[in-house]
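Continued from yesterday's entry.
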Amino acid sequence: MMDYRQKRKLSFLTIGLIFLLSGVEYAVILPTIWRYLQLLEAPPYFLGLGLSAFSFSALVSGPVFGHWSDKTRATKTIILFSNVFEIVGNFMYFMGYSKWLLLSSRLVAGIGAGAGSSIFGFLTRTTLPDERAGVFAAVMACRQAGLLIGPAFNIFLRLCDFKLGPFVVNKYTSPGIFMCGMWVLMQFAVMVLYWDIPPLDSFPEQHMPLREVRGEEDEPLMSLEDEHMAAAEDSYGSVSPEQTETQLSSELPPSPPDSPSLDTSDPFENFSASQEFLREEVVVLLTAQFITLFNQTALETMVTPLTQKYFGFGELGNSVMYSLCGVEVIAGFFLVRWLSRVLEDRVVLAVGLLICSVACVWCLIFLANPQGGFAFELIEFIIGVFLQLLGLPFVAVSQVSLFSKVTAEKTQGFSQGVRRSVGGLATILGPLWAGGLIGNLYVMLGMMMLLLTLIMIMMVLSYEKLVELPRVEHAEDSENGG
């Protein structure tokens, strides 16, 4: 019979695999969907619709799954249920037939992605505040690993050219059947390895794992540097999940002798969305989430046409560029990890916003109307992208870390769903805004600068409130909003 520590480790490992797979899915489908749509005679705007459809359905399903998990604590059931949508959606993508089926396939698969809010709620309830961000970082690092590994799968998927019954398997349809198979295997992994372990605050106080660990040495489970390694939904990381889980789980004792006192009260009994989400500090963090993801996706949309127009980059050039960007983002997290030993979350957030603002000003001056010859323009472009990517880890880490601390633990699944929905809305609107203004970069970048100025002002005015609130441990206090 496995103890609490072993079940916790296996559950966290399974969550890491889910996020790894979500990164792989994005990386194998994105490079081929445009040509796939062209073969199905879809108009150009279908690319934007196809990419936005996934984010839209995840935006809607996230709070629903989060609410479900807060009410029932049946996260395993939710994951198994949501994965069915991933399986069906990817099989629809494989079938092809028409542009509308392809669009529907991304809409269906996106519903499955909404389970992320339940997962973050589960992680919040089964970790202590001083270890939570490190666990978030490990899980999000798995998605980044998937994004880096995904292109490798495309090397053999593009060689596919055969029939499977009535279906044609080629380089455009193969990502669908490949991911369908991967999500089916994931179902078995969840059934065998994942456990709905009880929340830490459901144990009697004298048997709290942290208290037992700290009985002899009053030291946190993880150093403060790991506290700040969490990153946003769409986010990046460079922590080995196995190493993090070994560190976390090895220090937890076996199950306490007393069974946890499971709280069966309704976490939403005294819940008020307005009291929870319209507090000053929460609004600032949600705004930071929206603006950074809006700007990030807008710049991603702008980058490829720019490199083609000014530098003649093809698929290979863009692939190399994205690989280098991934390396820089990972290095950025190491930098944030080092800096966060001495800096508070709100200081890290302020530094990140400042870097993003400098990057936006640079792009306005040098990239909106590039001049000076190929070499000079390339250097201007590289510096602009470098600055933008440098600021991302600072903002992403700090706003996620703070958000989990200023919202109620008992309704964390729903709160994380709201946070991810705000990010999802940004990832839909960002490309739409940028896509229509590729030829007018002054307007596009000017709006981004305006948004950054807004969040900087909000940050300054609310700086004193951007700290961890006194943490409540029981359901009756959750109405106070964390």
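--- second protein ---
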Amino acid sequence: MEYSPVCHSLYALWSSPVKKKLILLSIMFLIWVYMLYSCVGYCSTMPSLVVDERQDGPGSDYEEPSIRTAASRDLLNNELEADRADDWDEMRGEQQRAPEPSAMSSFSNGSGSKKLPQAIIIGVKKGGTRALLEFLRVHPDIRAVGAEPHFFDRNYDNGLEWYRELMPKTLEGQITMEKTPSYFVTREAPARIADMSRDTKLIVVVRDPVTRAISDYTQTLSKKPDIPSFESLTFKNRTTGLIDTSWSAIQIGIYAKHLDNWLQYFPMEQILFVSGERLISDPAGELGRVQDFLGLKRIITDKHFYFNQTKGFPCLKKAEGSSKPHCLGKTKGRTHPNIDPEVVQRLRDFYRPFNMKFYQMTGHNFGWD
């Protein structure tokens, strides 16, 4: 039989014990690299959040007159469109600043499991909820959904498993969170969250209701410049000074009324109220309270923040998963229009008794009066 020189070389290579081990180790390493690469590709996939445009938005959370004028319907639609536009702006901002994951970080993210949230930021709209969530995501023991799921108000019929799939994977000891500010004013939300878990911790960012209403209007105005003036929307009758409480921008700020609904299902000690004003003036102090409430070590401190003079609020020196400073997007910190001081004072008079009741209920004076 003819003996090939090539075969002879292969035989000589394989017959050497040292070389045999090197070949086996090389094969094992290649297999390990292939398995890791496959896992990274699988683990990095995340479920997408589908916003059902057929669902009603935050405006459906309020008791409205059975007969509405065409103008009031248009305003409600404008507010919903402005809310959704800001939601999408936030989602795009999340995608734009998200760093490219390394192979090992993606591999790490693939471990753990998806859980229903143990803590939810339930309100309030234009109170500072996005800032709070962004600050909290710096904590290594908090994993949060970036976009607002709107599960307990718009998407409840999709079921808890759909909701769970939106959540990020967490390890033992980590807390899963989400934020949807419209929950606070949604009549059905407390019962629905209690059905999911009565142990859920609830966080509400509150803000001077007059300033909050103006900020709410400013958001809608930025998307629909042709809406009526703030003054004309505030009053049912300007002459008598009667406030139109059917306008959502006004009604959201009646915090005591909405809190009554939540206290039917959750004890006060399970709800934390964060001051939107102090979140700007002393973010580390408010974040300290939140970390204590969640039972976490105080890791987020003064060293994580710097004050942005241009925007007028604090920013992160390093955002989650990034080594670069991060401020909230252009939809935050809009310049408010000038409002007639007489209208502002009339609103302060209107909210004062509701604020007093809210202070008594929470045991905290927020200093809005």
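The radius of gyration is 27 Å. The longest helix spans residues 70-97. Will compare against the first tomorrow.
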